[in-house]
Amino acid sequence: MKTPSPALACRLEAARSVVRDAARMAMAMRPQPGGPQGELKAAQDWLTETDGAVEAFIAGRMKALFPDDGFEGEEGGVTRTGSLRWVVDPIDGTSNYARGRSRWCVSLGLLEGDEPMAGVIEAPALQEVYTSLRGYGAFLNGKPIQASRVAEPSRAMIEMGWSGRVPKPVFMEKIDAIMELGAMPRSGGCGALALADVASGRLDGYIEIVINLWDVAGALPLLAEAGARVSPFLRDGGLTGGAVIMAANPHIAQTLSDAVRIPLE
């Protein structure tokens, strides 16, 4: 069995440790259930004190560990450049987090140029940790995962993320197409975990019309290693701005792609 390069293996192990500590911090700061606590950046786009604190913690730790690596965060933007670049979403699913709900996560991905290499996604309130290293598998709590084998649309579960940046007619067109297939639509409010659900077979597909790199960086290597098919998010502008993403199990991916008119790689 081949083994990963020591440099990448070291980085994945370090990322796992840093994300674990960051997730503990986020849990300690999590609001009690109830009305949302935080500030609105835009319609339904929440920012909490925890977002900034967790990102600063991760940024500081990764700089100390790998000072030559680049770093990009949702709140702070690109703070360092390098051939290897860490991309963090300190709290993905902030609208859930701000209300004391459980479906949120800390996501950290590693890119080499425009190639996703490794990812760690921890959902501490769910007691789940996803890890992946390109070429060496995808795991949930240490156990290998694969995309589902569902091929019949009437048996499929498809999630679609909502964003205020997407016109309502566009959103409804895609939802209608999903329902016309006979699939069951879902929306959970956390893009990184939805993509992880596709990788683990809990969902058969996920679509979001405008999503950012920090939302997906930790999940892209997970999807690749789990055998899912993904639209060309990075090629189509995801490295520098918002872009569309569709991920699906390989048995239903083309059918879903044709229905919602989002091409696959």
Task: Write the topology of this structure.
Blueprint: H1 6-29, E1 39-42, E2 45-47, H2 49-65, E3 70-73, E4 77-80, E5 84-92, H3 94-97, E6 105-112, E7 115-123, E8 128-133, E9 138-140, E10 143-144, E11 157-160, H4 168-180, E12 184-186, H5 191-200, E13 205-211, H6 213-216, H7 220-226, E14 229-230, H8 234-238, E15 243-248, H9 253-260
Parallel strand pairs: 3-5, 11-12, 11-13
Antiparallel strand pairs: 1-2, 3-4, 5-6, 6-7, 7-8, 8-9, 9-10, 13-15, 14-15
Helix pairs in contact: 1-2, 5-7
Structure description:
With about 260 residues, the protein is an alpha+beta fold. About 35% of the residues lie in helices and about 30% in strands. The chain contains nine helices and 15 strands. The strands form three sheets. It has an eight-stranded mixed beta sheet, with helices on both faces. A hairpin with a 2-residue loop joins strand 9 and strand 10 (about 145). The protein starts with 5 loop residues before the first helix and ends in a 5-residue tail after the last helix. The mean pLDDT is about 90.
